[in-house]
Amino acid sequence: MSDTSPAPKPALPDHLSTDPRSPHFNKAVLEHAIGIRFNGVVKTNVEEYCVSEGWVRIPTGGKTKDRYGNPMTVRVSGKVEPFYVEE
Questions:
Q1: Can you list the alpha helix ranges (DSSP code H) found in the chain?
Q2: pLDDT tens track for 17-61
Q3: Which end of the chain is more exposed for a tag (fewer CB within 10 A), N or C?
Q4: What global pTM score does this model have?
Q5: Is 50 helix (H, G, I), strand (E, B) or coil?
Q6: Parallel, antiparallel, or unpaired: how do β-strands 34-38 and 15-17 relate?
Q7: Widest pairwise Cα distance in the chain
Q8: Coil, strand, or helix at residue 30?
């Protein structure tokens, strides 16, 4: 028998982004499933969050693009609680 316990997950950072060009991108953390509870509601479309400042960045949902060709996002303030999703 071999012990196949999962590797320990890194601590969730205060500020995290899914954009690889961002200085807040953390590949080690994003390899795991992360959930965001925003104002008590679990959100599945969060692009970036900051716990200490209390905001999340979510896509606007339309076809609008910014000047770099990325989908437009909106920054919404509230209580942010990141967590690892149990698989």
A1: 27-30
A2: 999 999 999 999 999 999 999 999 999 999 999 999 999 999 998
A3: N
A4: 0.84
A5: strand
A6: unpaired
A7: 55
A8: helix
List Cβ neighbours of 53 (8 Å cut-off, separation of 6 or more).
15
Q: For residue 82, report the phi and psi dihedrals to the nearest 5 degrees.
A: -80, 150
Cβ within 8 Å of residue 58, ≥6 positions away = 43, 45, 46, 47, 73, 74, 76
DSSP 79: -
Q: What is the DSSP string of the chain?
A: ----PPPPPPPPPSEEES-TTSTTB-HHHHTS-EEEEETTEEES--SEEETTTTEEEEE-SSS-B-TTSPBPEEEEES-EEEEEPP-
Q: What is the pLDDT of residues 2-19, one digit of tens each?
A: 556 667 889 999 999 999
Q: Which residue bears the tokens 């060009």?
A: 21
Helix or strand holding residue 6 (H, E): none
- Beta carbons of 36 and 42 less than 8 angstroms apart: yes
